[in-house]
Write a structure and sequence with these properties.
This protein has one domain: CheC-like (Chemotaxis protein chec). It contains 6 helices and 8 strands. Helix content is about 45%, strand content about 25%. A hairpin with a 4-residue loop joins strand 3 and strand 4.
Amino acid sequence: MPADSRFHLDALREMVITGLGQAASSLNMMLDSTVELDVPSIAMLTREELLNGRNSFGNPHLSCVQVAFCGPFSGRALLTFPPLSAARLVAALVGDQTHPSDLNAVTTDTLSEIGNILLNCVIGTIGNILAEPFELSLPHYLEGKFEDLLQPDSRPATPTALLALTRFRTDDHQIEGNIILLVELGGFNALLSLLEYSHPPQG
């Protein structure tokens, strides 16, 4: 990867970290518990490479909230949980001891609202840093294997995407999950142009 591209990915990583920090603070307030975040990994991946890494999500079946965003660049943000963590999160927030195999309307609505808050924190913070607003879709809840979550609307598969991934956990409630940003190839090119303007390489 060219040095300038690495610089811009580092600039993006810093923006993502700031957005994730806002999201973690919101979840911390909701749970009254410390939320630990891994340093996000950012990489350009083909769809095949992305699918080859699906085992890193630790569970073949996931509960997921997705939000599409468009603005200076476009893509999707995903909040994923193993089903047991999803059930524990809902139980911690609303006292609903729903079994993970019985995600009812209350559970679905609660996870959708949580996803909406957290993913809006991440994307909104990036937009504020860039001084470029994003439009976000309503949250969409779904379940399934990771590869099924990538194309929920049956659009043609994007051949290459920018992936930003971080894992979070809270020991008090034994909850873990992932926040994922997928930027389509065209959006990535737009992002590089924007970063070139707002974060020019030094030297």
